[in-house]
Write a structure and sequence with these properties.
Glutaredoxin, two-stranded parallel sheet, 8 strands, 45% helix, signal
């Protein structure tokens, strides 16, 4: 009889846990961020399918690009109302945990001109580009073409704008400075 009552209690506790588990997952709260996050790919073995011929390689590349465009189409438009194209006043910072510089751009003429002028330096710095205002896949593709070989990701820059007191872009943020 005791085991039956115990089983009912266990079942009840499990049911309660399952009912309220989703509430614990609703919002992520970061307690500590050292700024030294490492990509998981460095710890995983490289798995690449063998390529038999050039035709197969180009077909695979084309299908991957098509898949990426479909994924991008679902994540666009990206807008950051806090940031608009314009002049940025340079300022010194101290962010020792920022190991890779970040530059912020949008799909606008000022950003395209800025990328053309600074592409070589950004490449030397291995800077990562955040496209914070972009409407279409075509605009993002144009930016990626202009910025090649730089890595660009389309993400909202609202938190960056708030954290660094930014109102405008294009801008480069390094561990020591914000500059245009």
């Amino acid at each position: 009889m005791k085991s039956g009552a115990c089983n009912i209690k266990i079942a009840f506790v499990m049911a309660l846990a399952m009912m309220y588990a989703h509430q614990g997952l609703a919002k992520l709260v970061v307690i500590f961020d050292s700024g030294k996050t490492q990509p998981l790919t460095a710890y995983l073995p490289a798995v690449k399918p063998p390529v038999q011929n050039a035709f197969q390689a180009s077909t695979t590349a084309a299908s991957l690009n098509a898949e990426r465009l479909q994924v991008l189409a679902h994540s666009l438009p990206v807008t950051t109302p806090e940031l608009t194209p314009g002049n940025v006043v340079p300022k010194n910072l101290s962010i020792p945990y920022l190991e890779r510089p970040v530059f912020i751009i949008g799909a606008d003429a000022l950003s395209l001109q800025w990328i053309q002028r600074h592409r070589e330096r950004l490449d030397t710095l291995h800077a990562l580009g955040w496209v914070v205002n972009v409407e279409t896949v075509a605009q993002l593709a144009q930016l990626k073409q202009q910025a090649s070989p730089l890595e660009l990701v389309a993400l909202s820059g609202s938190e960056l704008a708030q954290q660094f007191g930014l109102n405008h872009y294009p801008v480069l943020i390094s561990s020591a400075r914000i500059e245009q």
